[in-house]
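Slide 14.
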Amino acid sequence: MKRKLLSILLLGASLLANAQSNKIEFTEYDLPNGLHVILHQDKTTPTVAVTMMYHVGSKNENADRTGFAHFFEHLMFEGSENVQRGKYINMIQSAGGAVNANTSFDRTYYYQILPSNQLALGLWMEADRMRAAKIDQQGVETQRQVVKEEKKQRIDNQPYGSLLENTFATAYSVHPYRWVPIGSAQYIDKASLPEFMQFYKTFYVPNNATLTIAGDLDVNQTKQWVEQYFANIPKGTGAIPRPTVEEPAQVEEARKVVFDNIQLPAVIQAYHIPAQGTEDSYAINMLTTLLAGGQSSRLNKALVDKQQKAVTVASIPLSMEDPGLFINLAIANMGVDVHDLERAMDAEIERVKNETITDQEFQKLRNQMETDYINGLATLEGRTEKLASYHALYGNTNLINTELDKILAVTKDDLMRVAKKYLTKENRAVLHYLPKAAQAR
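Slide 15: predicted structure.
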């Protein structure tokens, strides 16, 4: 046992030394119009990543117009002043590249991966749709149907598909996190063309964006192209709306039963947690890994392997720009009552609140956190997104080189402390997902 513990300690030391010796170099600056630019050179492969992060997500929407941020994730591929309708993706692919986008509660992120000799093309195209995206009735009507079909396929017609939607609606009462980025089809249907144009003029402006370029690039040449393509785009003239409402502290447990087209019941527990980047958020992230990070995690060993009350478990730290949620999820085994499953989940929560983790388990947990963090920076795409996120959402791009220290500063006592502080019944929402057949009983 001592020899095994020693090997774990040595592995941890090796990972840390490797991480510290590979500082990620970058250059960042602002254009006069407010566009923040981050450059990261990596000549390992002849590729470049051109990404644009707009600081707008579903929390920037109005309650009667949810889904706008996600809608624009699609609409921005319709074309622009100099790119014909429907040709945006084809142009990138014809140049040997790949392109995509995604939306969260806090930001919308567009990225292109291109051969390095096509960097100028990627920059020109990104600038062209920032300056003059095609926002017209034809594009809006096309994307209305696309977005509604996506919601139908990914959410409405999927077992447990509405899980996040119901969880956030139950956990939040006033904060705009109470709706999820996919939004509501009824509000997208009601929205008019002038509303979409106003959203674009408000949020898709240089002073609300972070342009991150990484890979096999020449820094001076790239700066020249950035100046050429982006410098003449006007800065937004209006204030960029940011939600100021704070979710009140929860004082009693919220509960909801959802009847879904499923065979196996599920239990979801959602605890309120502080915003990302706070000291407690790092301890909470480590706690979720302890509970459900892999086959040897607490919930998996107890509920799946030993008690066989669940077929699968998960623990997800949804740390966000504003206070988010710590979600525990378990899908019941055949014949297991959801109340028994919930009690088994609660028992594991009580363990982390009242039993100090062993040195061996803690070191293994630290090693897992280090490995996950380092692996997240191993790809060009991973580094580029982290650079953009650390600036846009944390206000500190250099966290890419220092956040691992914050993770490793978490102690065993911190794990117990945050469990006692946040994982309380009065601070959570609990949802039971039940088969529709049970509704008729």
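Speaker note: The radius of gyration is 23 Å.
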